[in-house]
Amino acid sequence: MPLPRLVPDPTHLSPLPGRFTFDAATALKVTPGAEGAARLLRTLLGPATGLPLPARPDGSVVLALDPALTGLGEEGYGLTVGTGGVLLRAADPRGLLAGIQTLRQLLPVEALADEPVAGVAWTLPCVQITDTPRFPWRGSMLDVARRFRPVSYLRRYVDLLALHKLNVLHLHLTDDQGWRMPVAALPRLTEIGGEPHGGAYTRAELTGLVTYAAERGITVVPETEMPGHVRAALAAHPELGNTPGRAYDVWDRWGVCDTVLGVHDTAMDFCRTVLDEVMDVFPSPYVHIGGEECPTTEWHTSPDALRRVAEEGLSGPDALHGWFMGRIGEHLLRAGRRPLSWTENGADLPEYFTVMPWRDSDHGRTAVRRGHRVVMAPHRTTYLDYPQSTSPAEPPGQAGEVVDLRTVHGNDPAPADWSPEEAARVLGSQVQLWTEYVPTAAHAEYLTFPRLCALAEVVWTGRHDWPGFQERLRHHRTRLDALGVPRRLSTTATPVPHL
Ligand code: ACM
Questions:
Q1: Which of 48, 143, 182, 188 could cross-link 236 (Cys pair, CB 3.0–4.6 Å)?
Q2: What is the helix (H) or strand (E) element at residue 101, kind and residue range?
Q3: What catalytic reaction does the record list (predicted)?
Q4: The domain made up of 12-131 is a member of CATH 3.40.50.720
């Protein structure tokens, strides 16, 4: 019996003889708590198959929530497909949502289409699967600050993540070149900061996105950058900066901008106001505050900053970064959230921060040894803005590295030589798409796939079966084709990436 080719690979999979067929008479038996999974199954299969899949007590497709199945954890599921019926079981609704994505991959690829497909039998191979993820954080970061993407696109992106059993969409909402996060008390942020190339989200769009993602088992983790990468905010509110009377533009260059937030009370109040709105919109336990690439040049000469150094008894202006992060981190803690930020070296933040090492994977080990919880995001294996091959046909991308499929697949979030205590502090890993060089949605998908599939494989399975992954990916690419993910990008159609 040929094995079904699934991405990510399930923990245990045994093929069984025969096939099951979904048809117009197929009904769902839905136990209490499994209603969301039933809705998702109808939503995902409806457009292509037209199947109504009504709920009936004698339905042959059973979606069962059973909290006693504790061995499956929060996101694991058991799936049995027999010739006479389907049984999907989990201890938590999120496990059922993961199982729905497996059912979807077991069906013919035509089931992924978003319009009716005629002449296809909706059959799937009989199989017994028990499946649990290795890591609880399986994510993808999308930079919507450098390039605004409408929320309609973010919904499509969420669907693509869910297909791969990822569970975190990390939205990079603000940066030097744009501010996309609405803050009711500070409308100029999006009026001025959202202006260049794009726009900003409304609160209703973001709360709608949060719900849409949750229905697919995905948490939206918001990131608003501070105290660096804030030039768009300074353009809207120059009083937040370090130089009274100076006017700022929303930055029109890439790189690290040396204008940063002041550390005076006006700037600290601003950060708390922004984060209170962020927490209102995003229920995510984790709230990302950026924190990286913050030159302290301005603080060395600002009278306000020097006064703060003296008042707080700090060693000098460079210590203001840690002071700032601590003050803001405590604000998030008081609100019951978990502060999250990039780390430059694994040792630059209070231990209660969850950190994302991005420069070097060794910084992850430094961080877990200090007691941090860690989400691995090392640029050499997870940054999708680097070209994926050395081919001259690749569109222009971030310079300095080539991050090919195998490199992403080789990302090992908790290497075997780390101690069990160190490994236990690794929540997982995620890919990042910075969008300086990514002018269109098609370009974003070209860069994201199939490399995101490799990340998904590693963080769900915890295994590095490269030949097996390649073999399954060959088939999986037909699923991506059915979903309209581009395999190629016309380089001639790619504008030169300047703002
Ligand atoms: C980063 O690449 N600025 C985290």
A1: 188
A2: helix 93-106
A3: Hydrolysis of terminal non-reducing N-acetyl-D-hexosamine residues in N-acetyl-beta-D-hexosaminides
A4: no
**In whole angstroms, what is the distance from residue 458 CA to residue 460 CA?**
6
CATH of domain 137-463+477-482: 3.20.20.80
Confidence band, pLDDT 50/70/90 cuts, at residue 2: confident
pTM comes to 0.97
Known active-site residue 293: yes
Which atom of ligand 1 sits closest to the CA of residue 432? 2
Ligand 1 close to Cβ of residue 74 (< 6 A): no
Are 94 and 217 contacting, i.e. CB atoms less than 8 angstroms apart? yes
Vertex 261, ends 257 and 263: CA angle to 5°?
140
Q: What span, in angstroms and rounded, lies between the C-alpha atoms of 374 and 354?
A: 6
In the chain, the amino acid numbered 111 is A
295/224 Cα distance (integer angstroms): 17
Backbone angles phi, psi at 222, to 5 degrees: -85, 145
Q: How far apart are CA 385 and CA 497, in angstroms?
A: 12
Cβ of residue 292 lying under 6 Å from some atom of ligand 1? yes
Angle 52-483-428 from CA coordinates, rounded to 5°: 100
Confidence of residue 495 (pLDDT cuts 50, 70, 90): very low
Q: Delimit the domains of the chain by residue range.
A: 12-131, 137-463+477-482
Q: Which residues contact 103 (CB under 8 A, 6 or more apart)?
A: 41, 79, 86, 88, 124
| Beta carbons of 452 and 164 less than 8 angstroms apart | yes
- What angle do the packed helices 151-163 and 441-448 form, to 10 degrees? 20
Name the strand (E) or helix (H) holding 17. strand 12-22
Orientation angle between helical segments 35-49 and 93-106, nearest 10 degrees: 20
Residue 94, CB-side half-sphere exposure with 13 Å CA sphere:
18
CA–CA gap between residue 46 and residue 262 (Å, rounded): 53
75, 98 in Cβ contact below 8 A? yes
The reply to whether 12-131 and 137-463+477-482 are identical in fold is no
Cis, peptide link before residue 8, omega less than 30° from 0: yes
Task: Please tell me the distance between residue 358's alpha carbon and the centre of ligand 1 in angstroms.
Answer: 7
**pLDDT over threshold 80, residue 300:** yes
* Closest of 148, 178, 171 to residue 219, by C-alpha: 171
**What's the 290 CA to ligand 1 centre distance in angstroms?**
8
Nearest CA to ligand 1 atom 2: 358
- Interval 41-56: pLDDT, tens: 999 999 999 999 999 9
Q: How far is the CA of 465 from the centre of ligand 1 (A)?
A: 29
